[in-house]
Design a protein that fits this description.
2 copies of one chain form a homodimer. By secondary structure, chain A is mainly alpha-helical. Chain A has a domain at 58-196. Chain A is built from 10 helices and no strands. Chain A binds a DNA duplex through helix 3.
Chain lengths: 220, 220
DNA sequence: GTCTATATAATGATAGAC
DNA sequence: GTCTATCATTATATAGAC
């Protein structure tokens, strides 16, 4: 009795199952909103066992961060080694649980997660430099936006599932989302004219802030 | 003494200041991670006053949701009425605090926030239909991805600030981000060939799931 | 409207039995 | 390795004084 092995793997040690449950719950509800007892209950063990294996909630969190980082790096290396890194899918392809946890961790201000963000941007820049010779003015900023959007969208699973009419954790929803993302990445939202208009609007906005009109000439 | 009016508006009632502080803290750290005492301290009043004005934390949260929704709708109407709705900036232009709160609220599972997500997708579809005649196969999914990414990226303020080297709440950082977004929206990440390759990979992946080979014919 | 004091519940941490 | 029992802390909720 009791809900054991919701991830479908009952052949893991209790410690590993606790870590997995913690990652899933942390990703879903946030770290602060998840109690040690919640995690223990999800695995079907007592709260004391969490303490026994990890010492404290903070240590458990660290263990999750380390595990996620390790797995993501391993996944990246596999993809790179296997030569199938290919497209920009280097970002959120596979490992949705890991990535969702990591993004949550970012929002909660984890240092290692922040570091990972920078790495992803650098990685995107490399890919862009190799596959997209020129045509992009601010490559760094472009990639930062790309990574921020890609990761941010991961947090919108529930909303995307509702709007697209299919669970984003099920194969069906994943495929539809993947197709939509390809279309999104290959069909520019703004044509050159619209982009020029938008940039002009930004320039104008920059020169005349909302309510004040600076009288001094030098800018600082 | 005490920190009062961090938003720069001291001419608001204590109730309004509490609501604003709650929205800022909820957006920054999440609802569960923010205590009533934190909010009261931010405004410089006692925790009891929060209870007096709002009754409970849940009621305070509802008040924040309602206020954010009202303000966003008003902003939308103003933009539409003023005729300056223009570009796809209808999404996250202005009101960053409101939107950040709203996205956090979405992640925490707020019904009204979820409803707002659907509305934004519908709005994006209207804009797309008016400004982007054809060329997009699945307009609904395309817009869902657009909104999810736009809103999701809002949550990455800290990471974007670090990577771009400027605070995304300051005009300087905002301008750089705005420019990067325009470039991102106007320069496709994937060229037609890359897109075709990606779609082919998705099709293949759909036909042969990772590890299991189903022997039965009917799917349930 | 605003504060202080207190009741009640939940949480992380801890000790010890099996 | 795993559990139960308990402590100290913190949070929300509540009542009442000014």
């Amino acid at each position: 009795m009791g809900a054991v092995g919701e991830l479908g793997f009952d052949d893991l040690t209790a410690k590993a199952r606790l870590r997995d449950a913690a990652m899933r719950l942390f990703a879903e509800h946030g770290v602060e909103a998840t109690s040690i007892r919640d995690i223990a209950k999800a695995v079907g063990v007592s709260g004391g066992l969490v303490r026994h294996h990890f010492g404290s909630k903070e240590a458990l969190r660290d263990a999750c961060d380390t595990y996620a980082l390790t797995q993501l790096v391993r996944f990246k290396e596999q993809a790179a080694g296997g030569g199938q890194a290919a497209g920009p899918q280097f970002l959120s392809a596979g490992q949705p649980v890991l990535l969702r946890y990591f993004v949550r961790s970012m929002l909660d201000g984890s240092p290692s997660a922040r570091e990972m963000f920078s790495q992803m941007v650098a990685q995107a820049e490399d890919w862009l430099e190799a596959n997209h010779p020129d045509g992009i003015a601010d490559r760094h900023a472009y990639c930062a936006v790309l990574v921020a959007m890609e990761l941010g969208a991961l947090m919108m699973r529930e909303q995307l599932s509702t709007v697209l009419g299919a669970d984003m954790l099920e194969p069906e929803g994943l495929v539809r989302l993947a197709r939509a993302k390809v279309e999104f990445y290959s069909t520019p939202l703004l044509n050159p004219k619209a982009a020029a208009t938008a940039l002009a609007a930004i320039d104008q906005l920059q020169q005349s802030p909302p309510k004040r009109r600076p009288t001094r000439k030098a800018k600082r």
